[in-house]
Write a structure and sequence with these properties.
single chain, 474 residues, 73% helix, globular
Amino acid sequence: MHLPPRRNLLVRGASAAGLGTGRVVHGTGRRIRRATSADGAGESGLAKLIELHALNSFGDMLITIALASTIFFSVPTGEARGRVALYLLITMAPFALLAPVIGPLLDRLPHGRRAAMAMSMLVRAVLAWTMAGSIGGADLTLYPEALGCLVASKAYGVVRSVVVPRLKPARVTLVKANSRVTLAGLLATGLAAAVGGGLHLLGPSWPLRGAFLVFVIGTLMAFHLPHQVDSAKGEQRAVLHARPDPAAAQPVRGAAEPGRAAAEPVQAAKPARPKASLRTVGPAVVLGLRAVAALRGLSGFLTLFLAFLLRVDPVGGLAPTAALGLLAIAAGGGNALGSVLGSWLRTRGSEVTITAMLLLATAAAAAAALWYGLATVLVVAAVAGIAGSLAKLALDALIQRDVPEAVRTSTFARSETLMQLSWVAGGSLGILLPLDGALGLSIAAAVLGVALVWTLLALVRLGVRSGAPHPRVA
């Protein structure tokens, strides 16, 4: 049976288009796999983690788009500020209590890291599907569901931070490995923003349905990570140990000196109880935590303050959506550039790198306050992205260098909690301040200036040192 000429032409055209699309998808997949597997990452298993993290970032962005469309874009600016403040209060207050427990809890399951990552994906898949049914009416149940997604996402982040050193190739530094993982997540986030925007045109629940599918795939991918992810060889249960007490090194009263008999019985000294404090990670890491927390606070401030400001008073004569789009591109591009630069970062001078990024961000905020306009707003957004990304990678290098592996997971858990709460603190300041560009950026520059002076004083006391990563605990 012969088809009509017109229909035959349509069939052939559709077939050719399908074959062409298949070749493009296949070729793109091969190029992505080649990029993620470079420098031995394919053999070590890091490539699979990079792809899993890209999927994780893709799904998180779809959830963010769905929540933003309900909490931020669908209502007037005044009401939106109240909704965002309520969201931060309901989600972040419990998170501040739960987050410090995540790291130590996951440390007790060193043989179940793949299962923990898969569970974090599965929990978000279920919650995304549940939120899809309640997002239309902006029900208050949306907020505890969003909290569940946040906790699951941070649990994934803590486990991922611990897994990277186990999967990185021998010739790749930890900072470069983290940079590649982060960059893959940023690229996936940009792609998800476009896909999520298209899905939102179909309805507010469609980005969440897309996130459900993404996290189901991620659940399966997590179990395909290499088996060494679950290996606990050379590890101890993470407990925050104090620095050795100099007094403990002094001889006990009545103890025999070398080569000399004891004159009286030796009394055993009671071991000093270690104090569980974040300062036990070392002064250089504390310096980095303070500075990076300030930069993360700047990111939260710019995100919410400029988002509301540009809705009511867009700069450069642009429409609000166009101004917000340019702001997102500048911030995302800065993050990506910081991750690329981080691949060249070395452990030597990480303290200086962090301080330099804080100085750069302070100068950009001050310039934007003095000469408020479209160009300076985009510059401060891009600089905040570069500085925050590069400083975080330098902080990872400090943690790898100075923190023993037995307490490294707890350090990552606490640092991630501090970064998240710093973002919330900055965002809360952005909500509370009047919507005046010069005033808001002046206050941001002043806060950064205080953090910069504190960091410089600490850097002068410490000096700059280098060294190999802390040896693995046997």
